[in-house]
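INTERNAL TRANSFER SHEET
From: sequence group
To: structure group
Subject: C1GALT1-specific chaperone 1

Please process the attached sequence and return the structure record in the designated field. Keep the field labels unchanged so the import script can parse them.
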Amino acid sequence: MLSDGCSFMKGMLLGGVFCLVLSFLGSFHFSSESSTEDHHHHHIYAPSKDELKRLSDSRVEELKNQVRVYCIIMVQPKTLVYWATVLDTWSKHCDNAVFYTSEGSKALEAVDLNEKDDWARLRKALIHAYENAGDLRWFFVAQPTTFAIIENLKYLILAKDPNEPFYLGNAVKSGELEYVEYSSGIVLSYEALKRLMTMFKDEGQCPERTHTLWKMGEDKQLALCLKYAGVFAENGEDRHGKGLFNKQNVVNMIKQSMQDNPTDVVEGCCPDMAVTYGGMSPNQMHVMMFGVYRLRPYGHDFHDWLTFYPPKDSDND
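Return from structure group:
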């Protein structure tokens, strides 16, 4: 009888271990992230000057007015200095910039989501943005260490229809899942966000909280929910194949280019129409604001075909 009891306990232990292993394997991707060249996703380009010239003035004006961006900036009290810096720099160029925090702060204004879990907090922020966007039809999700040039984002999506499901940024692959990296910023069209709202109601395919041992990042969880909604990651890049959404800051990209392309550092480094840089310090953000919006060579006119103005009455550079 004692022997039977021991065998039963061994079976229970082995069965439990087996279930844990299955749970671990079911949420783990064996393949490492591949480079952009290995992707099967679409590549999103900004319209060329020739393409813009073929449009009537009224059509260009219509597109300019249509491309308005709701910025969803995810912050926490422990990142208060980054939060304050984003508030004082690039977020002023959003048509509406809303900060979403894990808990309230007396120092700065934000939507208090009262949520510690990263994925659940992002879901709540997206729901709030969808319900309060008004007539804005493009959504940009960023971390407080991201620096964004909103005018370049608007140029990239100028001719894209927000009533089509767009989900773009720096698209990478992990196993069979293609997703847009959070650290580089995530762009969603109104249709993509609308479909996501429907998926949020499906706890089977898009749960608010995961129960696996291997916790998946919120950018991958977002990609999974969008995938079930028929929305797939797309890579934003220029005509030379350079990514417009960068998870590294400018300094690191230049250093890397000095090693890889010592004879042509600038050409090997950064795209002319970059949308984002990640991993930025507060000081680097202020320097970027000076370089992007203030420093100008006297007497030079870049002859851009169209101009995106910041929101009316906004305190911006």
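Handover comment: The chain has a mean pLDDT of 83. The CA atoms of residues 33 and 173 lie 5 Å apart.
Transfer complete.
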